[in-house]
Specification:
13% of the residues lie in helices and 38% in strands. A hairpin with a 2-residue loop joins β5 and β6. It is mainly beta. The two termini are 20 Å apart. It has a single domain, classed as Cathepsin D, subunit A, domain 1, CATH 2.40.70. A five-stranded mixed beta sheet has the order 1-7-2-6-5. A two-stranded antiparallel sheet has the order 3-4. Strands 8-9 form a two-stranded antiparallel sheet. The longest helix is centred in the first third of the chain and has 7 residues.
């Protein structure tokens, strides 16, 4: 997969990846988790597992991060949600007024 859109969400403390993306990337086995998540519609879901040390390419740089892999009805335009942990690791600069993120 060469290009993938992602949503940067400062409200999220975790990074989320849809199960279909995990399958396309042929990543190693998921690490089991006992986590439960409350979605924006207030429904509760249990993740399929954790994808550890996934490399995300931004420009010419690669960042290693962990993703919680979920299988739920999601917006197909945004298969990844990058939370505060990734934004911190990548030292993101966020200009809310200018609607721009610099990584």
């Amino acid at each position: 997969m060469d290009v993938c859109n992602a949503l940067a969400d400062l409200d999220e403390s975790i990074n989320l990846m849809h199960l279909s993306i995990w399958k396309k990337l042929s990543l190693p086995e998921l690490t089991p988790t006992q986590m439960t998540l409350e979605l924006v519609d207030r429904s509760i879901t249990c993740p399929k597992g954790l994808a550890k040390d996934v490399y995300v390419k931004v420009g010419k740089f690669y960042f290693s991060t962990d993703f919680v892999v979920v299988d739920f009805e999601a917006d197909p335009r945004v298969p990844l949600i990058l939370g505060r942990s990734f934004l911190r690791t990548s030292r993101a600069l966020i200009d809310v007024y200018g609607e721009e993120i610099t990584l």
